[in-house]
Amino acid sequence: MILEGSWAVGGWNEDTRDNSTVVPFPTVPGGAGSGNDIVGGFGSGFYLSKSTYDDAAKKDTAVELLKHLTSPASIQKIASANGGTPAADVEVTGLAQVALDGFAMAAKADSISAPVDSKVSQETFGNLRASVQPVVEGKKSPTDAIAEAKKTEDDNRK
Q1: Which of 78, 98, 136, 148 is 20 to 30 A away from residue 71, measured at CA?
Q2: DSSP summary character for residue 86
Q3: How many whole angstroms separate alpha carbon 96 and alpha carbon 127?
Q4: How far does CA 97 lie from the centroid of its chain?
């Protein structure tokens, strides 16, 4: 069993890729969740500045470019090239079956929550990661770990 995200697949050897699949974590008896809720997402996209949009000489060309880049054909090419989950219902080719299994799981997800590291500062996330082992070993309480991380986050916002 490998506990990882989709980004790891590209670093696996061919045998591991060919003999792996993606499965959801089992639901905890009495817990919330459907078994189809995932943590994922990638904060990327195409952006158009207000100044470009407001510039009559640039607006139409810029909008057409965005339409092209977000078309199903372009999304298919981008997803096939980078292994990222496509933002449209397109067939992705040339990837290992394990990656395609991950796409299928994401497509049927009831919900997708952004990962913690995309919601807090790097320092806060590093603080959280550094607290995992002490919490597991009983040297730090989960409450103390969260309080330390919150302090780091609050300090970063000042």
Answers
A1: 98
A2: P
A3: 35
A4: 19
Residue 109 makes CB contacts below 8 A (sequence gap 6+) with 36, 37, 38, 40
Give bridge partners of residue 38 from the DSSP assignment: 112
In the chain, what's the furthest Cα-to-Cα distance? 63
The amino acid at residue 117 is: D
pLDDT in tens, 75-108: 888 888 877 777 788 888 888 888 888 888 888 8
C-alpha span between 17 and 11 (Å, rounded): 9
Contact 101, 21 (CB under 8 A): yes
User: How far apart (Å, rounded) are the C-alpha atoms in residues 155 and 134?
Assistant: 23
- DSSP bridge partners of 112: 38
HEC readout, 96-112:
CHHHHHHHHHHHCCCEE
Q: How far apart are CA 41 and CA 144, in angstroms?
A: 28
- H or E segment and range at residue 38: strand 37-39
Task: Count the neighbouring beta carbons within 10 Å of the beta carbon of residue 71.
Answer: 13
